[in-house]
Description:
Layout (H helix, E strand, L loop, with lengths): L2 H11 L4 E5 L3 H8 L3 E4 L3 H14 L6 E5 L3 H15 L4 E7 L13 H5 L5 E4 L6 H13 L6 E6 L25 H13 L10 H5 L6
Helix pairs in contact: 1-2, 3-4
Amino acid sequence: MKVGEAIAEILKREGVEIIFGYPVNHVLEAAAIAGIRPVIVRQERVGLHMADAMSRVSSGRRIGVFAMQHGPGSENSMGGVAQAYSESVPILVLPMGYARRLAHIDPNFNSVASMRTFTKSAEPITSPAEIANIFRRAFSRLRNGRGGPALVEIPVDLFAEEIPGPLVYEPAISARYGPDIADVRKAAAALVEAKHPVIYAGQGVHYARAWEPL
């Protein structure tokens, strides 16, 4: 199995049905062959906003995915990634990267180095053998804790390589956690006793789907 096929298979196992993208990024072709619908956009930031919307309207159950070309395409995406980070929206960002022998040569744009400060994680694929581990870490960060984008850079020279052996990948889990029950009782008592209660809640209520009655 080649690298592109392995990435597409991982996305399918994680429940991805749509991938937004701006060519050229070979993962878009691999995803289409695997049955994931590619939606091609005219400008990178627009594609980021579309992936952002998918994550928001599904309360993070369907992670928005955006793939773009290396160099200028990745540069154009920075604003959308930064906005998703500032608003705690989980998005998987898949920039193509320069070949590994050129990845750190100035002035080539390096997505991992440039976007590390406004992503939950930013990691390049350096070996086909590590693809499953890298994507599991990315999806674990997307599905747990405060929301935000996770970035996996795919060097262009990696697509033609084969992964060693069969793909071993289990989807990332979402850990459940909650507040101390004593604090919940205090908050509930304060609400019950209030004559004109007002709840000022952030989008964490949306992602937790906390609108259902107990």
